[in-house]
Amino acid sequence: MAKKSMIEREKKRQRLVEQYAAKRASLKAIVSDQSKSVEERFKASLKLADLPRNSSATRLHNRCQLTGRPHAYYRKLKMSRIALRELGQQGQIPGLVKSSW
């Protein structure tokens, strides 16, 4: 189980990304638009820099929804390999069979 503080920090980042997504997208569009004046694009880039760092989507890290583990994360299932194996052994995931030879 991951530390509670790390899980909560990741949740906070997720909330910030959702909160600032529209504003960040509009500013990025202005910055990348070559038809705008240089001053206008520069002002937009300064406003973009003033936004909170954690509102950027690149700062998010995938974590297991059951345990909060950040490594060995399966995107399709949104859980780590360890949680997947435990649920598979309990028969909670249909079609998943523990291999044995």
UniProtKB/TrEMBL annotation:
<protein>
    <recommendedName>
        <fullName>Small ribosomal subunit protein uS14</fullName>
    </recommendedName>
</protein>
<keyword id="KW-0687">Ribonucleoprotein</keyword>
<dbReference type="GO" id="GO:0015935">
    <property type="term" value="C:small ribosomal subunit"/>
</dbReference>
<dbReference type="GO" id="GO:0005737">
    <property type="term" value="C:cytoplasm"/>
</dbReference>
<dbReference type="GO" id="GO:0006412">
    <property type="term" value="P:translation"/>
</dbReference>
<dbReference type="Pfam" id="PF00253">
    <property type="entry name" value="Ribosomal_S14"/>
</dbReference>
<dbReference type="GO" id="GO:0003735">
    <property type="term" value="F:structural constituent of ribosome"/>
</dbReference>
<keyword id="KW-0689">Ribosomal protein</keyword>
<keyword id="KW-0694">RNA-binding</keyword>
<dbReference type="InterPro" id="IPR018271">
    <property type="entry name" value="Ribosomal_uS14_CS"/>
</dbReference>
<comment type="similarity">
    <text>Belongs to the universal ribosomal protein uS14 family.</text>
</comment>
<comment type="subunit">
    <text>Part of the 30S ribosomal subunit. Contacts proteins S3 and S10.</text>
</comment>
<dbReference type="InterPro" id="IPR001209">
    <property type="entry name" value="Ribosomal_uS14"/>
</dbReference>
<dbReference type="InterPro" id="IPR023036">
    <property type="entry name" value="Ribosomal_uS14_bac/plastid"/>
</dbReference>
<dbReference type="GO" id="GO:0019843">
    <property type="term" value="F:rRNA binding"/>
</dbReference>
<keyword id="KW-0699">rRNA-binding</keyword>
<comment type="function">
    <text>Binds 16S rRNA, required for the assembly of 30S particles and may also be responsible for determining the conformation of the 16S rRNA at the A site.</text>
</comment>
